Amino acid sequence: MAQLAASSRAESKRVPLDQVTEREREVLALVGEGLNNAEIADRLFITPLTAKTHVSRIMTKLSLRDRSQLVVLAYESGLVRPGWSQ
């Protein structure tokens, strides 16, 4: 029974990353690492406005309300792990 409960929790934590592009996953991982839009832009060789657009599109696609939820998502999806950065 405990295994079934754990399995149900795991199912509810699955993150729908199939809705975002590969580039958006890159941006999401960098948000999870704590980078701001300018830092993301520098890392990915894009403009800060493009970084901001990626962040906004991710939040819209996944129905997230703020950057904090993006960070949680990045950890829960495994894109970022505690104590690990690229």
Structural notes for this entry:
With 86 residues, this protein is mostly helical. The chain has a single domain, classed as Orthogonal Bundle (Arc Repressor Mutant, subunit A), CATH 1.10.10.10. The chain has helices at 2-13, 22-32, 37-44, 48-61, 67-76. Helix 2 (22-32) crosses helix 5 (67-76) and helix 3 crosses helix 4 (48-61). The longest helix has 14 residues, at 48-61. The model is unreliable at 4-12 (pLDDT under 50).
Count of all domains: 1
Strand content: under 5%
Query: What is the residue-averaged pLDDT?
Result: 87
Global shape: globular
Please give the CATH architecture: Orthogonal Bundle
CATH class: Mainly Alpha
Please give the number of β-strands: 0
CATH superfamily: Winged helix-like DNA-binding domain superfamily/Winged helix DNA-binding domain
Low-confidence stretches: 4-12
CATH topology: Arc Repressor Mutant, subunit A
- The Rg value, from CA coordinates, equals 14 Å
Classify the secondary structure makeup into a structural class: mainly alpha
Give the N-to-C terminal Cα separation: 39 Å
Order of helices and strands: HHHHH
Instruction: Give a short account of the largest sheet.
Output: none
Task: Tally the helices.
Answer: 5
Q: State the helical fraction.
A: 55-70%
